Structures are given as structure tokens and as C-alpha cells.
Amino acid sequence: MKYPWIDEYLQNKPGVTKDLQKDWNWIRYQIGGKMFAAVCLDKDNQPYYITLKLEPSEGDFLRAQYPDIVPGYYMNKVHWNSVKPDGELPDELLKDLLDKSWQLVLHGFSRKKQLEILGETSPANTSSGTLAAGAKKKSFDYKKEYKEFYLPKTKPSIVEIPPMNYIAVRGKGDPNAENSEYKSSIGLLYAIAFTIKMSRKTGHTIEGFFDYVVPPLEGFWWQEHTKGIDYSRKDTFQFISLIRLPDFVTKDDFDWAIQTASVKKNMDFSKVEFMTYNEGLCVQCMHIGSYDSEPDTVSQMHAYMTAHGYALDITDERYHHEIYLSDARKVSPEKLKTVIRHPVKPR
Predict the structure, then answer these.
(1) Domain that residue 14 falls in
(2) Domain end call among 77, 106, 135
(3) Is residue 130 domain-resident?
(4) Tell me: the pLDDT tens digits for 46-64?
């Protein structure tokens, strides 16, 4: 195996226990009784996969970038990934992925259980948000840190949105059509988003960089000569697909990511642009259900804004805005969570 350090590295993590699952012939590494990594052995007891857990979007990106990372072997292929032990994945990247897997499983426990796992008996050292010296700080998650923008209630509210920078791709047509421009735009966005997120692994230094969870996919939607959105004419949709950029990412960093991804993936990223947008005053609401049932939520939003002295302000520069908190490929339509946002102005 190319990574002879892996056993010592994993056992040195706080709270880790190790066993051999004889039925599978896997060496399992666990915290609190839950596996976060495994070395899968063949019939000759030689490693043939190293399995670990990642955020789904990061796993998807890494599988596309590195042929030695594949969907989790005999595991849930959304959350788990397997690494070939004799491949070309850099040691430092594998260590980083193992760290993240340990963190993901650790943070799935209650605070009390985390303290037990880490050998702490008192929460006295947790006031700053860290659980123990051995626990790495969790990645910054924009959804959780800015709940007023990403996790509104299912009742409408008025919100002021500050200027933000985005990775953006423009297009048109029915988003559900096979080989649609919309589906293509998503692949372009995530390729650049994760190139920036993984920049430290390539030697590119971004000033002020901190580890973060890639923000959710968003979309601006409109139709020419239409006030609002007509869901019955999806073929006339025009859109801008978006992923928010951390504030520390500059236009120069963005240009580096475009060039790097173009070479590594041998793809054309000329449609991808760096976009600054000041959305301003809006009415928003969490919509639960299929995209086709959005008009009911939109009606509630418009009734709310009117009752509170606001008027709809959708223009050529202010759009119907959606933020997708669910993956439509993996969540049933009735459970989809989408933030819907419309620009308003005082009447």
C-alpha cells in the first residue's frame, strides 16, 4: 500500500478505536461506535480500498477530479467514497479527507457525547465553539452562519440582502430538458467552486482563506415580456445559475480557478463569470414541495408584502430568485426545500 502511515495517523486521532470486521474483512476506525474510515482487505489480506465519509457535493467533485476516488465500496454512495490504496492521490490530500471524515462523524453526535469521545469531562473549554484541543474547527457553513438568508421560515418575511460575489453562468430554455443549458451550467459552477475550495492543495495561496462548505446552488429566473414567472412556459425561461463566493475570493483568484480547471478538466469555461450582485430589499419564504407548486408560496409572499406596505419590484435587473437546499436527484419532490425570494420596494 502506498500509504503505510494510515494506521498510525488514524489511531492518533482523539477517541478512535480500531477493530477487524471479520465478515467484511475490513479494518474499521470508529469514534463513539460509528465508523469514519476503513481499510478494506482482499482475500490475501491486502488493502484494496480506503473508505471515508465526505459532504456529498465535495465527494462528487473529487470523484470527477481524481480517478483514484470512487463511490463508496459497499457503502452509501452519496456520503461515502473509496480511495485506491496504490493510486496517485497525494498523501496530504488523503490526510485532509480523513480529517474531514473524522469531523463529520464526530459532529453527528450530541455535544455531551462529543466531549466523552474526546476525553473531556466538562464543557468549560467549549465556550469559544471548539470542543477540545484535538477537535479541528468545523468548516464555515454559510447556511448556518447566515440563517436569515438561507434558512427562513415557511412564513414570508422582509429581508435586506447585502452585495455578494458569485460564480455565475447564464442560459435559457427548459431546465428539465435533456442536455439543457441549465444542467450544463451546474457542472461548470461546481467545477470552479471546488477548484477554489481546494486551492490550498494545488499550491495557490488565497489571502484570508479559511475552510468552508461550498454554499448552495442558486438561480435567478425570468421570461421576456412577463411579470413574475409563468411556470407553464418553461421553454421560455432565462436564467443565471449561481454559487456564492466567500468574500476573500478576488477576481484574480477567480481567473486562476478558470485557467486551472480548463487545463485539468480539458473543458471550456468561457461561459463562467465573476458576478457581483446587490439584491437589496426582498420578500422571501421557505418553500417545501415541488418546484411546480411554488405559485402557492409566491401568492403568500405577495399578499404579505402588500399587507406590510411593499410592492413587487421585479425588473430587468431584479429577478425571481431561488436557493436550492435539497438535491432534486436524491430528495422526493414533496420534501424539496427551496428559498424563494422576490425584490420589493416601499409603496
Answers:
(1) 6-106
(2) 106
(3) no
(4) 999 999 999 888 888 888 8
